[in-house]
Amino acid sequence: MATRFEAVLNVDLDGPRISRHLYGHFAEHLGRCIYGGFYVDGAIRLDVVEALRALNIPNLRWPGGCFADEYHWRDGIGPRAQRPTMVNTHWGGVEENNHFGTHEFMELCELLGAEPYISGNVGSGTVREMSEWVEYLTREGDSPMARLRKANGRDEPWRVRFWGLGNEAWGCGGNMTAEHYAQEARRFGTYCRDYGDNQLYKIAAGANGADYAWTETLMKQIGHLGCRRIRSTGYHALSVHHYTLTGPTWEQKGSATAFDTDEYYTTMVAAARIEEILAGHAAVMDAYDPGQTVGLVLDEWGTWFDVEPGTNPGFLYQQNTLRDALVAGVHFDVFHRFADRLVMANIAQTVNVLQAMILTDPDSGALVLTPTYHVFRMNQGHQDATSLRVDVRTAPPSRPVGDANLTTVSMSASRKDGRLLVSLSNLDAGAPADVRIEIRGGTLETVEAQILTSGAVQDHNTPQTPSAVAPHAHDGVSVAGGALRVRLPAHSFVTVSGIL
Ligand code: AHR
Asked: In what residue span(s) does the Alpha-L-arabinofuranosidase C-terminal domain sit (predicted)?
């Protein structure tokens, strides 16, 4: 039997703007993300670029992750054959040849039409090293680093806005206390200069999940918010990381594809926790910064399961099912609700690692678009749109999962250029949901809908069945009497767009 849910959408009551950067990405020197994913046989894979361009990806974070705090950028410039090698100690202990470095990354961003988000090395680097990287990338005219860049074939400086001051400083980024890191972030941030009209937006390495104390320490240390001079020497935003974990322990995270219904619901509860986590950090930030001048950046999120059998445990290669797509749908609904404080989010990671958009076959090279890819594509219209508040009229359907109560219908809406876009997920694995949304403050005309679902939540795409989980037109939608009605089959993600 179908569950029912009624909501109200005031299409003329504007919420905050949904930054396109909430649809950001992350590519680390980890497993087959860069080498064997983006970069193959000494060249950027253009079919990967083409697939990602269709998502309109706004930014790409690089080179880590944990790798960022052991990366020395000078090793990755100049003639490739002369670049020194190093050991990637975090990810499989493999040798890194530094063939993909600054120039290659900036070229990739140009091809993608995405803004670079560079994570600098605080953990094992120096202030000088980071300061010179900024100079190398962004300084015009004559200076030691600008000359070096030109000698390496690039005359014009690049534009770089997003700059990370280390990564996970509480762990792989140096095992620091929050107090110590806050001082380090201010010190490193001070020497990351704005050259010409390039203005950095510096992002301090933030909390692990629900560690609100970390956020509070960084907020205390950010300086006097009213004083531009002090802010410009510190950081403009704080990050936070939250992964969706299902298994009982870190060592047993569960299979990406072989899971039962109980595990499915446990995953959904873990995903939905993002709401509580963002609310917790936002509340701490509001206490210190009620004017919301400091941004919150969720620069790592996504599912983390056991690696696929037979693959290198350090490479974090996992399949991606309809369950992952629903995890993404739930996250985006929450992001849209927090769009006033949340300025950026980056899924981990774009190709061949964790909750990827694209998987490439190591032998044949075949490229597979995952169910998560399709959610990014279907939700594209929310980028830079005005978020709209959804008010519930009847309690949304829910079910008990262990000690938690999982709301099984999730939705969010936005308006852009006279078009309404509503995203809805039915997390119930067995029952459809009928949703009635009363439209107030405007008239909704023709609507069209797309659906992403499949026979089972475990379904996924492979080189042999690349479209097992792919979007289709959905006819379970209608508008009558000022209300939009949507039928959501069990375990489905639906987008409805219409003209206002
Ligand atoms: O995304 C994989 C890893 O997860 C990142 O390198 C690190 O920041 C996090 O712990």
From this structure: 299-492
Nearest Cα neighbor of 197 from 159, 249, 171 is 159
Three-class secondary structure of residue 488 per DSSP: strand
**Cβ neighbour number for residue 91 with a 10 Å cutoff:** 22
Query: Does residue 300 have its Cβ closer than 6 Å to ligand 1?
Result: yes
Q: Is 438 a catalytic residue?
A: no
Confidence of residue 324 (pLDDT cuts 50, 70, 90): very high
Q: How far is CA 368 from CA 320, 350, 437, 489, in A?
A: 10, 12, 35, 25
Evaluate whether 423 touches 413 at the Cβ level (below 8 Å): yes
Indicate the residue type of 120.
G
Peptide bond into 65 cis (omega under 30): yes
Q: Give pLDDT tens digits for 396-435.
A: 999 999 999 999 999 999 999 999 999 999 999 999 999 9
Return the bridge partners of 14, or none: 388
Mutating to test ligand 1, I would choose from 29, 34, 61, 66 the residue with most ligand atoms within 8 A of its C-beta, which is 66
User: Which atom of ligand 1 approaches the CA of 91 most closely?
Assistant: 6
Is there an atom of ligand 1 within 6 Å of 348 CB?
yes
How remote is the CA of residue 315 from the centroid of ligand 1, in Å? 11
Interatomic CA distance for residues 175 and 182, integer angstroms: 13
- Say how many C-beta atoms besides its own lie within 10 A of residue 221's C-beta: 17
- Asked if the bond preceding 349 is cis, omega within 30° of 0, the reply is yes
Q: Are strands 358-360 and 367-369 parallel, antiparallel or unpaired?
A: antiparallel
Residue 164: both structure tokens together: 């990370």
Residue nearest to atom 8 of ligand 1 (CA): 65
Backbone angles phi, psi at 406, to 5 degrees: -95, 120
**What tens digit of pLDDT does each residue of 104-159 get?**
999 999 999 999 999 999 999 999 999 999 999 999 999 999 999 999 999 999 99
Average pLDDT of the chain?
A: 96
300 assigned to active site = yes
Cα 244 to middle of ligand 1, angstroms: 13
Q: Which residue among 115, 168, 184, 275 is the active-site one?
A: 168
Q: Contact, 307 vs 313, CB < 8 A?
A: yes
Name all domains of the chain by residue range, CATH numbers in brackets: 3-12+388-499 (2.60.40.1180), 17-383 (3.20.20.80)
- Cα–Cα distance for residue pair 444/157, rounded to 1 Å: 47
**Distance from first CA to last CA of the chain, Å, rounded?**
32
